[in-house]
Amino acid sequence: KQEVTQIPAALSVPEGENLVLNCSFTDSAIYNLQWFRQDPGKGLTSLLLIQSSQREQTSGRLNASLDKSSGRSTLYIAASQPGDSATYLCAVSRASNYQLIWGAGTKLIIKP
Amino acid sequence: EPEVTQTPSHQVTQMGQEVILRCVPISNHLYFYWYRQILGQKVEFLVSFYNNEISEKSEIFDDQFSVERPDGSNFTLKIRSTKLEDSAMYFCASSMSSSAVEKLFFGSGTQLSVL
């Protein structure tokens, strides 16, 4: 059974720092992996999607990597800003039916 | 930018009552999903829907739950007889296809409180 773990559960850093959020999964037979952002009272916003055949994806200050063989993904945020404060979730899809299996998230606080 | 719309944002109901949660997916999307998140817990998959039928459902999605696309725009989740443990944030999502390159687009959620 696929299990997704995110470390750390919470992270607080000063503005401007680069940071890395970690996601691990137990079954490497994934279809894709997505990183989401969750803001209080709002929905889940997909940030980056990495297909199982890819190693990384970039969008602006965000870079996500995938090492399927070791069951790990990282989300790198460069030059963090207070607006980046949110909970970041990773989720893996085991098949094309989009039954996503989710991590518990990392709550990120960027201090001005 | 197109978005998934969910109504209501909050729903309070008595145990045993029926509730219908409503969603308007992005107009050209073909795949629809419901997820839920109990407070303090992980997001959980409930059901996926394509071509007017359920394509997959989780063990959570028992006979108390049903989904429907009553017209060309709405996608609903019905809970027939709510239980206390149904209290959660329910998220609707849609995607254009089930391809590995397709992101899921989520609504803002309906917070369901069962008293």
Can you give the mean pLDDT of chain B?
93
Tally of strands of chain A: 11
Structural class of chain A: mainly beta
Q: What's the number of helices of chain A?
A: 0
Distinctive features:
heterodimer, A: 112 residues, mainly beta, 6-stranded mixed β-sheet, 5-stranded antiparallel β-sheet, 11 strands, 57% strand, globular, B: 115 residues, 7-stranded mixed β-sheet, 4-stranded antiparallel β-sheet, 0% helix
Give structural notes.
The complex is a heterodimer of chains A (112) and B (115). Chain A contains no helices and eleven strands. Chain A is mostly beta strands and 112 residues long. In chain A, strands 2, 4, 5, 9, 10 and 11 form a six-stranded mixed beta sheet that branches. In chain A, strands 1-3-8-7-6 form a five-stranded antiparallel beta sheet, with no helix packed on it. In chain A, a hairpin with a 2-residue loop joins strand 6 and strand 7. Chain A is globular. Chain A starts with a strand and ends with a strand. Chain B has 115 residues and is an all-beta fold. Chain B is built from no helices and eleven strands. In chain B, the strands form two sheets. In chain B, strands 2, 4, 5, 6, 9, 10 and 11 form a seven-stranded mixed beta sheet that branches. Chain B has a four-stranded antiparallel beta sheet with strand order 1-3-8-7, with no helix packed on it. Chain B starts with a strand and ends with a strand. At the A-B interface, strand 4, strand 5, strand 9 and strand 10 of A face strand 4, strand 5, strand 9 and strand 10 of B.
